[in-house]
Amino acid sequence: MSDLFKIFNPGIEESKKLICDVTTTHKDQKLQGFFSSIGMTSGDYLNFQVPENLVVIGDIHGDIESLQKILNEFKWESYLESEENLLIFLGDYIDRGFYSLEVILCICKLKCLFPNNVFFLRGNHEAYHYFPFSSFSFPTELRTKFGSKGNDFYFEVIIPFFDSLYGFCEIESFALLLHGGLPVIDDCNFFKNYKFHLSDLSKRKDLLEEILWNDPRELVDNNWQYSNRGLGKYFGMNISDLWLEQTHCKNVIRGHEPCKGYKINHHGKITTLFSSKQPYPKFESAYLKISRNEILRESEKTMNLDEFINIV
To answer: Is 60 a member of any domain?
Structure first.
């Protein structure tokens, strides 16, 4: 397994095979429903019982060095030997940093080695073909690496991989995990079958946009405001309280915003994780690691997750 980080100067055929294999694994898991003793999926929606241990990694943005540091710090090989230990990525694997393709190849190797306890959520940078924005540079990186074949590689290999990523994750009675933020829901009837609504986000672009682009804000007079990003919304604590009450969870864990490793919103209910340092020298990279015993110990009160966050 020591070849996990042997992903520099990748060949196009080996890259294609690795990524396509993971795309197939994602599709198979979505069809299976239950894939481990603690995990199930309904399409784009992932659900877990409380794992023995949980590691969550935020935005990577092509920063392979920070990714390597994080994986090595929690001793990924021994950690992932048990399927009751989960590793969840919150999206935004590409752009900004120098090694977007290498990051994808590294995490795909992890998925191939440990298919039932390594999971990738989709970030807004993995949905450019749905929601275009100005700073999307990944196809240019692929053309630099693979020449004219880079365009075909993007459309034939990368887009299907991005479309296979999960959109929303729930760890029962503990946390909701997603890339951006909670969608603003006006009709509480939504929650009678919310797992169904989240199961095929390709048919619910309204939900997908907000999941990938929303940000929490300490709003006083409004439940939400339009975002300065041009996509998504700013959502206030009333929206967080609604989602947590309806799903019986305590926390939301998300990425999307550069920060000094992490930040806390909505009186500790929203934790933002950021795991990219190289493209953001003024910020820090971090990850969250928490055990089942710690989750259960804290379950009777609002959890502030900052004590379980590690800066690398």
So the answer is: yes
**Whole-angstrom distance, CA of residue 7 vs CA of residue 144:** 16
CATH code for the domain of 237 = 3.60.21.10
Using one digit for the tens of pLDDT, what is the confidence trace for 32-84?
Answer: 999 999 999 999 999 999 999 999 999 999 999 999 999 999 999 999 999 99
Confirm whether 48 is domain-assigned: yes
Residues of the chain with pLDDT under 50: 1
Split into its structural domains, the chain has a count of 1
Domain presence at residue 256: yes
Q: What is the DSSP string of the chain?
A: -GGGG--SS--HHHHHHHHHHHHHHHHHHHHHSB-SSSEEEETTEEEEPPPSEEEEE-B-TT-HHHHHHHHHHTTHHHHTTSTTEEEEE-S--SSSSS-HHHHHHHHHHHHHHSTTTEEEBPPGGG-TTTS--TT--HHHHHHHHHTTHHHHHIIIIIHHHHHHSB-EEEETTTEEE-SS-------GGGGGGHHHHTT-GGG-HHHHHHHHH-EE---SS-SEEE-TTSSSEEE-HHHHHHHHHHHT-SEEEE--S--BSEEEETTTTEEEEB---TT-TTSB-EEEEEEHHHHHHTTTS---GGGGEEE-
166 DSSP β-pair partners:
121
Is 2 within a domain? Answer: no
Structural domain containing residue 238? 9-311
